[in-house]
Amino acid sequence: MVNQMKLEFLNRSENESFARVAVSAFITPLDPTVEELTEIKTAVSEAVSNAVIHAYKEDEKGLIQLECKVDSERRVIIIVSDHGVGIEDVSKAREPLYTSKPNEERSGMGFTVMESFMDKLEVVSGTDEGTRVTMLKKLDKAYGI
Amino acid sequence: MVNQMKLEFLNRSENESFARVAVSAFITPLDPTVEELTEIKTAVSEAVSNAVIHAYKEDEKGLIQLECKVDSERRVIIIVSDHGVGIEDVSKAREPLYTSKPNEERSGMGFTVMESFMDKLEVVSGTDEGTRVTMLKKLDKAYGI
Amino acid sequence: IGEIRRYLRDNNSIRVSRSLRDTAYKALQSKEKLSRELQREPTITEIAKDLDLPREEIVLALDSIQDPISLFEPVFH
Ligand SMILES: Nc1ncnc2c1ncn2[C@@H]1O[C@H](COP(=O)(O)OP(=O)(O)O)[C@@H](O)[C@H]1O
Ligand SMILES: Nc1ncnc2c1ncn2[C@@H]1O[C@H](COP(=O)(O)OP(=O)(O)O)[C@@H](O)[C@H]1O
Ligand SMILES: [Mg+2]
Ligand SMILES: [Mg+2]
């Protein structure tokens, strides 16, 4: 692994933006295209907002971890995990439009967005065991550097 | 504590910029002025670059931790720590212009910069026990929000 | 999503480094202008509003152009 970092933060909604910027700053030295960075940021947002919204009970303080690694082949690996309630049926949760909170204007498109913006998505979860979302994206080769 | 986060990253020089941006993004919801943000970023740079340059032996891979907390009185607390070689004589190290690496164009002003840009600086270190730098700054009242 | 992707591809094949430099330049200009207008240092939010850009763009961009150290060091040398 050429570089790696870990973040840990509270399940507060303003930390979604914090996580997005932190990941951006971490991969900026690879000089991705604006398109690639926007895709990664959007995927990070979805993963982190899921952990903020779904992982912990209302008013429960919970921690969210984000790990990011970049390797010499310009692969970016991002792991977002929580120790919250977990997902009972992962395949159902990953279906487009599925949401367990239809009353709160959730789109149910979070996992679909992560899947289409990244090259790989893996979701490991179990009731009361928390959730671990692993995403991978290979950046285009760099011309500028 | 109103919000808090932790980072962990490798002792690579590009992570200085990563740490700086991560701290900036984390305190952005408090809406600091550009000046306050620059001061905090400069102090973070000095603390992190010290850990990158001085804490570990050449070519040794080492981890650096950064913790940041903000409270309801707009106080920002930043703790940068490493598990490296440590500092034998902390008061000497904190003197302006003192550097243990005079041949490498080090200015010896790192701790002085941290001290003058932040409201408080505490350095705890011991040979082979690593170093822990704690900095505090109280932000001015919020204008924009 | 297909539409978003197409939009991104058509508009954003530029590198992040260049885009950030452009934003940073605008942010510095906005900071100067707001400092004059407000008679004090503007906040990040005020600059973001002025440029109609997200705050996070400003934060990232402000770090991309200059190392705050290099701004500061000449004072000591
Ligand atoms: N970190 C998580 N912890 C618990 N449940 C989750 C988590 N992430 C996703 N889920 C579950 O998966 C469902 C689908 O997620 P998603 O596709 O992002 O849609 P949405 O967030 O709009 O509901 C959520 O409604 C929720 O039930
Ligand atoms: N994290 C650290 N680990 C080990 N030694 C350190 C660390 N931080 C500072 N030092 C010691 O303190 C001295 C003074 O630090 P500083 O004021 O930043 O000056 P400079 O980095 O330019 O040498 C350094 O030269 C080094 O010997
Ligand atoms: Mg979602
Ligand atoms: Mg130094």
Q: Cα distance, first to last residue of chain C?
A: 54 Å
Overall SS class of chain A: alpha+beta
| Structural domain count of chain A | 1
The CATH class of chain A is identified as Alpha Beta
- CATH level-four homologous superfamily name of chain A: Histidine kinase-like ATPase, C-terminal domain
If you average the pLDDT of chain C, what whole number results?
81
Helix content class of chain A: 25-40%
Number of strands of chain C: 0
Name the helix and strand elements of chain A from N-terminus to C-terminus, one letter apiece: EHHEEHHEE
Q: Total number of β-strand segments of chain A?
A: 5
Straight-line N-to-C gap of chain A: 19 Å
Q: What compounds are bound to the protein?
A: adenosine-5'-diphosphate, magnesium ion
The biggest chain-chain interface is:
B-C, 25 and 25 residues
CATH architecture of chain A: 2-Layer Sandwich
- Using only C-alpha atoms, the radius of gyration of chain A works out to 15 Å
Helix content of chain C: over 70%
Shape descriptor of chain A: globular
* Radius of gyration computed on alpha carbons of chain C: 16 Å
InterPro entries (chains A, B): Anti-sigma-factor_SerPK (IPR050267), Anti-sigma_F (IPR010194), HATPase_C_sf (IPR036890), HATPase_dom (IPR003594)
GO molecular function (chains A, B): ATP binding; protein serine/threonine kinase activity; sigma factor antagonist activity
Keywords (chains A, B): ATP-binding, Kinase, Nucleotide-binding, Serine/threonine-protein kinase, Sporulation, Transferase
Protein name (chains A, B): Anti-sigma F factor
What layout of secondary structure does this protein have?
The complex is a heterotrimer, with 2 copies of chain A (145 residues) and 1 copy of chain C (77 residues).
Chain A: E1 3-10, H1 14-27, H2 34-55, E2 63-70, E3 75-82, H3 90-94, H4 110-117, E4 120-126, E5 130-138
Antiparallel strand pairs in A: 1-2, 2-3, 3-5, 4-5
Chain C: H1 2-11, H2 16-38, H3 44-51, H4 55-65, H5 68-72
The structure holds adenosine-5'-diphosphate (2 copies) and magnesium ion (2 copies).
One magnesium ion (MG) binds at residues 46, 49-50, 110 of chain B.
